[in-house]
From TrEMBL:
It comes from Mortierella polycephala. Residues 114-249 form the GST C-terminal domain. This is glutathione transferase. Keywords: Transferase. The lineage of its organism: Eukaryota, Fungi, Fungi incertae sedis, Mucoromycota, Mortierellomycotina. It catalyses: RX + glutathione = an S-substituted glutathione + a halide anion + H(+).
Length: 261
C-alpha cells in the first residue's frame, strides 16, 4: 500500500483562496475557458460536452496521452472527468461526473426555474444516470463469462421496465419531448448521452433499438438534437473522435452467442 507521501493526486486546496476559486466558478460563462479532462469516449464525458456546446462556451477537451496515463496528479481521486475553469484570475477545478453535470446544468439554466422543478429534473437525471451505471456494472465491467447473461437480463428485464415507467411520466408531461416542463433540461440531455454510450457498446444497437421503439423516449432524443448548438457539436470532428474512441475501447466487452451461429 502506498504511503500518503507517495500519492500524486491533486488536493482540492489550491494556490488561490477559496473566495477567488468561488468567483471563478460563479463567473459569467462567456468570460472563462473550460477544459474537460477525460478519455476520448462518450460515457460520463458526454453530458458535459453537450452542455458546454449548448451554452456556447469557450471549451475544449483534454485527453490523456494513453489509457495508462490518467494524469492522476491533476485528479483529486485519481479518476476523470475533471473540469478546469480558467480565467484571468486563475484556475478552479470541479471533480466527479455528477458534480460536473450539476454545475454546468445550473450554469446554463438546465435545471428549471424553481426549487421543485430543479429537484424533479435532478430526479429524472438520477434515474437515467443509474440505468447507464447498471449497464456498466452488469454488462461491461463484469466477468467475461457473465456478459451474455448480464446483457440478456439488461435487455429483457431492466431496460423494458425502465422504459415502461418513464413513458408514463413523459405522457403525463404532455408527450412534448421533455421529461419535465416544456424546456430543454439536464435530464433530456443526459438521456441522449446515455444512448450515445449504449451505441458504442458491442450489440449496443440492440439496446438503442428498444428506446427507438418507444416514440415518447425517442422524441426526447429528437428534441435535444434539434438544438442548433448540440447539432453542431454532433457534426464536429471532436464528436466523431470520441464516438470512434468509445467503439474501439468497448470492443473488449463483446461476447459469443452460440445461439446466433
Amino acid at each position: 500500500m502506498s504511503s500518503t507521501s507517495e500519492l500524486q493526486y491533486r488536493s482540492f486546496h489550491a494556490d488561490i483562496s477559496t473566495e477567488k476559486s468561488s468567483r471563478i466558478l460563479a463567473a459569467d460563462p462567456r468570460s472563462v475557458e473550460y477544459e474537460l479532462m477525460y478519455f476520448d469516449i462518450t460515457c460520463v464525458g458526454a453530458s458535459p460536452r453537450y452542455m458546454l456546446s449548448y451554452g456556447k462556451a469557450n471549451w475544449h477537451d483534454k485527453f490523456p496521452k494513453t489509457w495508462d496515463d490518467k494524469e492522476s496528479h491533476d485528479c483529486p481521486f485519481g479518476v476523470m472527468p475533471v473540469l478546469h475553469v480558467k480565467s484571468e484570475d486563475g484556475q478552479a477545478m470541479v471533480a466527479e461526473s455528477v458534480v460536473i453535470d450539476m454545475y454546468l446544468a445550473k450554469k446554463f439554466n438546465l435545471l428549471g426555474s424553481n426549487e421543485y422543478e430543479e429537484l424533479t429534473i435532478k430526479a429524472f437525471y438520477s434515474s437515467v444516470h443509474y440505468l447507464r451505471e447498471r449497464s456498466l456494472m452488469r454488462v461491461t465491467w463484469t466477468q467475461a463469462d457473465k456478459r451474455k447473461e448480464g446483457f440478456e437480463a439488461f435487455m429483457t428485464k431492466m431496460v423494458p421496465w425502465w422504459i415502461k415507467v418513464h413513458e408514463q411520466h413523459l405522457e403525463r408531461n404532455g408527450s412534448n419531448g421533455h421529461f419535465f416542463g416544456d424546456k430543454l433540461s439536464l435530464a433530456d440531455i443526459h438521456l441522449v448521452s446515455t444512448l450515445d454510450h449504449f451505441a458504442e457498446l458491442p450489440r449496443g444497437d440492440k439496446i438503442v433499438a428498444l428506446f427507438k421503439a418507444s416514440p415518447l423516449l425517442w422524441k426526447v432524443r429528437e428534441t435535444v438534437l434539434e438544438n442548433p448548438e448540440i447539432a453542431a457539436w454532433r457534426a464536429s470532428e471532436g464528436y466523431n473522435k470520441v464516438v470512434e474512441g468509445g467503439k474501439k475501447f468497448y470492443s473488449f466487452c463483446t461476447f459469443e452467442d452460440k445461439s446466433e451461429a
